[in-house]
C-alpha cells in the first residue's frame, strides 16, 4: 500500500499576463485524492478529484491546469502589486502541515531562490504532487 499524496501551498492564479493586480493568491491543497483551491475570501475556486485534473508545466514555470473545462495559469509568486495572501490562507496552509511531515524534496536551485523566490520550484513540486496523486500532468 502506498502513502496518500498530500501537498499544500499558496500559489498565484495569473488571471492576466499584464496586470499584476489580477494575479491572485490561492491556497491549493491536495489531500486524500482531492485538489482544492480557495481564494482570499475562503471561497472554493474548485474542489475536484485529482484524477479529473489535467495540465502541464511550461518552460517558464507556469503550471497550466484544466479543471472542469476551465484553464488556470498558476505561478509560484505574484508580482509586487499583487494582493498578498490573506491571514486565513496563511493559517490554512500552516494548519494543513501542522500534523504532517515536511515534503521530501531537494529544494529550489540557487538561481531560482535568489532571483525568483523559489517560484519555479513551487510549481514543479505541484506538478510532481499532482502526477503522484493521479492527475494527468506533464
Quick summary:
By secondary structure, the chain is an alpha+beta fold.
Can you offer a commentary on this structure?
Helices cover 24% and strands 33% of the residues. By secondary structure, the protein is α+β, with helices and mostly antiparallel strands. Strands 4-3-2-1-7-6-5-8 form an 8-stranded mixed beta sheet. A hairpin with a 2-residue loop joins strand 6 and strand 7 (70-75).
As laid out across the biggest beta sheet, the strand order is 4-3-2-1-7-6-5-8
What summary fits the major beta sheet? Answer: 8 strands, mixed
Large-scale geometry: globular
Compute the average pLDDT: 90
Spell the H/E element sequence.
Answer: EEEEEEEHHHE
Total number of strands: 8
Strand % is 25-35%
- What is the number of helices? 3
DSSP helix fraction:
10-25%
Low-confidence stretches: none
Radius of gyration: 14 Å
Q: What is the first-to-last residue Cα distance?
A: 24 Å
Secondary structure class reads alpha+beta
Amino acid at each position: 500500500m502506498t502513502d496518500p499524496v498530500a501537498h499544500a501551498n499558496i500559489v498565484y492564479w495569473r488571471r492576466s499576463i499584464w496586470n499584476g493586480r489580477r494575479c491572485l493568491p490561492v491556497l491549493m491543497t491536495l489531500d486524500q485524492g482531492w485538489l482544492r483551491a480557495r481564494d482570499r475570501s475562503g471561497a472554493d475556486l474548485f474542489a475536484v478529484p485529482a484524477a479529473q485534473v489535467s495540465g502541464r508545466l511550461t518552460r517558464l514555470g507556469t503550471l497550466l491546469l484544466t479543471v472542469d473545462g476551465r484553464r488556470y495559469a498558476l505561478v509560484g509568486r505574484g508580482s509586487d502589486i499583487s494582493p498578498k495572501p490573506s491571514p486565513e490562507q496563511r493559517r490554512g496552509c500552516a494548519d494543513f502541515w501542522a500534523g504532517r511531515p515536511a515534503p521530501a524534496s531537494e529544494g529550489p536551485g540557487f538561481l531560482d531562490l535568489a532571483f525568483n523566490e523559489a517560484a519555479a520550484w513551487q510549481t514543479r513540486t505541484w506538478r510532481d504532487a499532482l502526477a503522484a496523486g493521479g492527475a494527468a500532468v506533464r
